[in-house]
Amino acid sequence: MSKLSIVASVYNEEASLDAFYHAVTSALEGLSLDYELIFVNDGSTDDSFEIIEVFAGSDPHVKAVQFSRNFGHEAAMIAGIDHASGDFIICMDSDMQHPPECIPEMVDAYSKGHDIVLMARKANKDAGIIKNITSGMFYSLFNRISNEEFVPGVSDFFGMSSKVADLFRNNFREKSRYLRGYLQTVGFNRKVIDYEAADRYAGESKYSIKVLFRVFFIAITCFSRNLLRHCYGCSAMSFLGALALVIISIVRYACYGITSPAINISAIVCFFFGIQFALTGVLGEYMYTVLGEAKGRPIYIVDKTIGIDRAEP
Question: Which CATH fold topology does 3-207+298-306 show?
Answer without folding.
Answer: Spore Coat Polysaccharide Biosynthesis Protein SpsA; Chain A (3.90.550)
